[in-house]
Design goal:
alpha/beta; Rossmann fold; 8 strands; 36% helix; phosphatase activity
């Protein structure tokens, strides 16, 4: 019979082994694309290190929206055990957005209450259903997305408001109502729920709102989605179709797509996944993986980025197929597609530098006197950021798909004192997800 001491020892050893067993403590690993909290917190904006006195005058912030549902009801895959008809389970959400009607001009003054309407996509009953099968809107920002953009707002707050480096401070108060003038901020995005909610969440995190019961209306500059050049669109610019065709017919593009490695992946999509396609597979994989949803067994082998798993190989090739088009022929496609957005950005920079010969803005006081925005937000998509990155130069961006809630920052500084290292009285710095890109630009 086992002694009491032996029994206690074995119990202790079993408990110790349970605690030390890698299988029991291993956390779920996610692609960087998912922008989980540990990744988001690593994207802080580094301080400027310069011996030459500088003064930050303007910051343009271009973001990708946060995590979302699939943007369309596309087919993903079909395999033994998959859920028809799209191969993925329905998506259910708590709410999409809250809306309100503006005051009617015929309403009497006084304390008129507001009715806020919460959009809930639950009006249909089987067999009729929403496109994603549940109560979510296609492309809807989900909880992770809100949390990601909250972190982005805090990063910007720490960099441009709470910073101890006064030459980088754009505002001396975190309260939105304390901004020095109305046009000091400008918020821009396209007319999609995920971009609007991402921008709104970031701004709410960046600034504090007074709690005295006053309603603050924040202008959000947008346009009809089909004609908004915040992303590439062949309807706006048909020439993009020709440039895309040139890229996909290039020797390099054709050679890779017919390589032995890619043909193996093609076979997985066509045979194992019942006709999955490269156009949708990236979104299928990431919306499922980032939310701990079911993935076909043959692709459920991800351990970490670059691990040569089938998951990573499929995702990497899907990324390459799109980003190659953006980078081909000295980024011709991207330069044409993003020309209107660059023109929009440069128009605000030109307001700042207008006059020349010392007559441009040199201080934040000058910016206020000229009524020029100092912080401008553009809430867009992965297809906003990636072509913008491609236009910066061949060796600036490695072609990796922009993760959820990615952030590109373009800062413009006044050079306070003459310095031969600077060829202008203004200097720019560009940061992408916490990495300074400016030294790579030639």
């Amino acid at each position: 019979m086992m002694s009491r001491q032996t029994s206690l020892l074995l119990t202790f050893l079993s408990f110790f082994l349970f605690l030390s067993c890698p299988m029991s403590t291993r956390s779920i690993q996610y692609p960087e694309y998912c922008s989980k909290p540990d990744v988001m917190k690593s994207r802080f904006i580094p301080p400027v290190l310069s011996e030459t006195p500088l003064q930050l005058l303007q910051a343009h912030i271009i973001i990708r929206h946060g995590a979302r549902t699939p943007y369309r009801d596309y087919f993903c895959w079909s395999y033994d055990g998959s859920i028809p008809p799209r191969g993925i389970e329905p998506w259910n959400c708590d709410g999409v957005s809250t809306i309100m009607a503006p005051h009617n001009s015929s309403e009497n003054g006084g304390d008129v209450g507001l009715l806020l309407f919460d959009k809930v996509y639950d009006a249909l009953s089987p067999p009729v259903a929403n496109k994603l099968g549940g109560t979510c809107l296609t492309g809807q920002l989900i909880q992770d997305g809100y949390e990601q953009e909250y972190v982005n707002g805090r990063i910007l707050r720490e960099t441009y408001i709470d910073t101890k480096k006064t030459f980088m401070q754009l505002f001396d108060s975190t309260r939105y109502s304390d901004r020095p003038y109305e046009r000091s901020t400008r918020f821009r995005g396209d007319d999609q729920q995920r971009t609007l909610m991402s921008g709104q969440t970031l701004v709410k995190s960046l600034f504090d709102v007074d709690t005295n019961g006053t309603n603050i209306i924040v202008p959000y500059h947008t346009a009809d989605y089909p004609v908004d050049p915040i992303k590439p669109d062949t309807l706006i610019c048909p020439k993009l179709t020709d440039l895309r065709d040139e890229a996909v017919k290039s020797d390099e593009y054709v050679a890779r797509n017919f390589s032995e490695d890619v043909l193996v992946l093609e076979n997985i999509l066509s045979e194992d996944l019942g006709g999955g396609n490269w156009r949708n597979i990236m979104d299928c994989l990431m919306t499922q993986k980032c939310n701990k949803r079911s993935i076909p067994p043959i692709l459920d082998d991800f351990k970490h980025d670059g691990d040569n798993s089938f998951f990573s190989r499929v995702a990497e090739h899907a990324s390459w197929m799109l980003t190659y088009i953006y980078r081909h022929n000295n980024a011709a496609y991207s330069k044409l597609a993003m020309g209107p957005l660059w023109a929009e950005i440069f128009s605000f920079m030109s307001e700042m530098t207008a006059g020349g010969n010392g007559y441009g803005a040199r201080t934040l006081g000058d910016m206020k006197k000229k009524d020029i925005p100092v912080l401008l937000l553009y809430s867009g998509h992965d297809t906003t950021l990636m072509p913008i990155l491609a236009t910066l130069g061949e060796n600036v961006w490695d072609g990796t798909w922009s993760p959820y809630a990615s952030m590109l920052v373009i800062e413009t500084y006044a050079v306070v004192e003459d310095d031969p290292k600077f060829t202008s009285t203004y200097a720019c710095r560009i940061i992408y997800n916490g990495a300074v890109l400016t030294p790579k630009i030639h």
